[in-house]
Batch of 2 targets.
Target 1
Amino acid sequence: MTTDTMRIFLDTADVATIHDAYSTGIIDGITTNPTLIMKSGRRPTDVYDELADMGIRDISMEVVEPTAVGMVREANKLIEKFGEVATIKVPCTKAGLQACRELANNNVRVNVTLIFSPSQAILAAKAGATYVSPFVGRVDDNSFGGLCLIKDIVNIYQQQSWFQTEVLAASIRNVRDVGRAFEYGANICTIPPNVFEGMYNHILTDKGLELFDEAWKCVEATTVT
Ligand code: E4P
């Protein structure tokens, strides 16, 4: 079951890893990109096929044609094959946003990716984006505040009562960024598998469990009937 708020997507095209994480019931969707598909060593449609078979209902599939016409053509093929499971991912360029407008007019979910400024998020929203993907980690890599970008975009949408576009925090590099992105109002975080695994961990949980286990052994030793 998916929830409407605080959604977690996995940012990978590794089917085995996704299978493992998805079986927790915590993952709400998947984002892929050409780099992640390349790393998987598989054909994109084979990856999407297996994810759809797993029951995943929201898979971001990136189109790579340079023109708006080409992107829409590519998107339509994906929609034809994968239906409502497909979220079409377009870059935040003139052509990308033109394609976004056309796809959105046909009720296709569009994820506008490679967002690095509030102005790009405004244009993407106006072009009918379902999701905008600001790249937190890559902004940080360039010595700007990636999480501030999330905060700014969320504030703009809230100030303008713009509820039709959701903020999908992308390029997340650590566990802390997930909490902060949600705190600043991101609707969704897409996170790499290692960050997802890291979210379970706390040294005090391990220590607490150790103490409980020792206590339980004492209980068993002293209450044997
Ligand atoms: C977003 O959808 C992208 O796939 C991804 O988050 C990019 O992250 P990176 O900067 O770690 O490559």
Target 2
Amino acid sequence: MDPMTRRMILAASAAGSALGTVNALAQGSGQDGNRGNVPQPIRGNEGARDMGPRSIDVDRNNPDMLSPPATDVGDVPNLKWPFGLSHNRLSAGGWARETTIRELPVSKATAGVNMRLTPGSIRELHWHKEDEWSLMLNGNARVTCVDESGRNFISDVKQGDLWYFPSGLPHSIQGLDQGCEFLLVFDNGAFSEDSTFLISQWMAHVPPEVLAKNFGQPESAFANIPRKQLYIFEAPVPGPLSADRVQDPYGQAPNPFVFKMMDMQPVKCPGGSVRVVDSAVFKASDNIAAVYVEIEPGGMRELHWHPRSDEWQYYIAGKARMTVFASGENSRTFDYQAGDVGYVPQTMGHYIENTGTETVRYLEMFTGPRYTDVSLSQWLAVIPPELVKNHLKLSDDTIAKFNKKKLVVVGSNPDRGPGNQKQPG
Ligand code: MN
Ligand code: MN
């Protein structure tokens, strides 16, 4: 039985329902009756069956919105956006969609773009004010960049590799034989993928005689430049990297703009693992820090917050939920799955719990050169126990068991075991 069904049955049982009622619940609104597993807005003896109209798929993906934990309260703003609800810009050669403050208004610090390029297709030569961090999600590509000292960088990237193009530096991305899909992250929530500086548009909006003078060649040499932007366009798959290398009299950019994240040894935790990639290990990434997290079924990214930056999340696999405590009487729970963006404003407390049966994989993205966090349990373990006891009325034994080191990802709830994390009612 999957956790959702278990939760529903627990909820129904807690309400004193007979087995017949559970079956009635599972039949849902009729439009979906034979598929079962229909979540209902019922929590213990509160709530009532949804009579419809409703979207079963939306409810299935957001069970903690339909029936929130009783601890949720107040008016925390929306902290979830599925890329599937973003406008998708289709071109011959691929597509791109973005999640910005226009889609997710709270996400002031960070914007994301999900892009696809078919084999050979090119994301046009361009630059922008924001720093660009990227993870290759599938396939392979060739990237180029030139720094302010005129030094070039040309490299191939495959699944699991990162790249980083600092603010203002010109770059390109071209799909190789497999084509590719990747995630781009920018250190400004108002970023727009549609208003970057494109080589085609600049060249088309400079007087032809200026182009001639600039390059020291006749105007006729520029007669065929495109009049409209290229953005994403098809091209032949390039040859081997060795054949694409260009000798640069200024040399190569000294800090590689590419980082092989999956070659990095993960830090093992009781309920999963983490890879922290900030400027300490990926020198070029001096204004965006990343953590790649894996949470095993039953595991949970422990209660914590980030003292110096908002957190922008991207979910790659699995099902998870997060409750964000926004100070005062404000706390709200969201559910996430592959393709979703999550967001946590700076200093707000949160956890991320695996609510499914497969490993949750997601990215935590931060602005700034270094990753930082504060762990609730580690904090309480390294201050005087009497102080903690006076606040929380915990036993000496409980306080003594708090770990003095950050666990980061904890294992299953000792009372419940994997796949049964949520209390009914
Ligand atoms: Mn870019
Ligand atoms: Mn966090």
